[in-house]
Amino acid sequence: MHELTIASSMIDLASDHASRNGSARVTGMHVRLGVMCGIARSLYFCFGPATRGTLCEGAKLHIEEVPLTIFCEHCAEARSPISLSNLRCPDCGRPSRKVLSGREMELTHIELEEKAPHPALAPVGQTLQ
């Protein structure tokens, strides 16, 4: 299941980012997935279990699905084909060789929780509860 590998890679990236920035944990991840990837549902399914024991445990996964668009050379315009399996212009019916969007797989945003200040590092005269 390559969705688990993708989830693990995202978790590794986010955990590394959190560590480098001194964060206690990752609270959320935002991903852009093109509809042609076809993994959004599977990624949601395996994300939670894949985060166990990491800085991402309990993080929310936010997926933005990017629609499929093609460029029709005959019409000289971007179009949305009728289906994912038929990359023809819906207006003129000619096949397209250029996919403009729908194949994306991007980790776009990582939400971090800041670490609580260590009591020994509190300024003199300030009380911590």
Automatic annotation (TrEMBL):
Gene3D superfamilies: 3.30.2320.80. One of its GO terms (molecular function) is zinc ion binding. GO terms for biological process: protein maturation. It holds the Pfam family HypA. Keywords: Metal-binding, Nickel, Zinc. Zn(2+) binds at residues 72, 75, 89, 92. Ni(2+) binds at residue 2. Belongs to the HypA/HybF family. NCBIfam families: hypA. Involved in the maturation of [NiFe] hydrogenases. Required for nickel insertion into the metal center of the hydrogenase. This is Hydrogenase maturation factor HypA. It comes from Aminobacter anthyllidis. The lineage of its organism: Bacteria, Pseudomonadati, Pseudomonadota, Alphaproteobacteria, Hyphomicrobiales.
